[in-house]
Amino acid sequence: MQTVTIAGQHVPAIGMGSWNMGDDPLKENDEINAIHAGLDAGAKVIDTAEMYGSGNAETLVGKAIKNIARDQVYLISKVLPSNASKAKMEQSLDASLKRLGVDEVDLYLYHWRGGVPLSETVDELQRLTQAGKTKAWGISNFDIDDLKELWQLPNGSKAAANEDLYNLSSRGVEYSLLGWQKAHDLPFIAYSPVGAPDSLDSHLDEDKTIQTVAKRHQASIYQILLAWVIRQPQILAIPQSSNAKHAADNIHAGDISLTKDDLALLDKAFPAPTKKLPLDVL
């Protein structure tokens, strides 16, 4: 599997998300088993956030990695806009670290833009990195104009990654954002890489074109969707699954190389954007 380099750390290009995990005690064992299966299959990244279940996802992830060597897991968490101030961020991060059961996260993201001045948020993210509570910081749900504004700040270019929605039916970031990030050596993290809720996607799991490509590779539709997302360098996909076999299959998608014919077929069914589109967010 190809790797993505974030702030000097090399991680496999497919990791795991944790949105909607940790909320149901009856599902806890299955969710923990799914995380273990993903790690056993070769994943390293686990993406979570204080927002997910108001901390429940971080608690679930903490339970799952309790007996796993810290250097075997790359942890990403996120701070809510309401907590992204000099007065609140450290307390917020400390709470996340406690739920996760670790002393630091590998990457701490500003979840989306809120009312706190961007310069204040960035300076506090940088301070917490220097304090050793996170190895690196980044942003999420930032569009190209947000990144350009960020880069004008004294510490702005120290951002280590940007996480946005990206999948075959949501390709708006390809028009200008991905190119800008490549030019500025800013890795891209794709959330909802196998599709978003019905309001945004086109029922990708039912699409005949994707089914055709999947048959060519003796793979699942979800594996093809993931292989498509990471077809370019420096893109990390973080699919979520609470099923152990599905979680492992997701990671193995990193071993699939789509051909030019595959990509042409998918491009015809899901055309790339021809103009700037509003950033898709969840």
TrEMBL record:
Binding site for substrate: 111
Domain (NADP-dependent oxidoreductase): residue spans on this chain: 14-268
Catalytic residues identified in the record: 52 (proton donor)
Pfam families in the cross-refs: Aldo_ket_red (PF00248)
Record-annotated site: Lowers pKa of active site Tyr: 78
Species, as recorded: Secundilactobacillus folii
Name of the protein: Aldo/keto reductase
Domain of life: Bacteria
InterPro entries (UniProt xref): AKR (IPR020471), NAD(P)_OxRdtase_dom_sf (IPR036812), NADP_OxRdtase_dom (IPR023210)
MF terms (GO), sorted A to Z: oxidoreductase activity
Gene3D superfamilies for this protein: NADP-dependent oxidoreductase domain
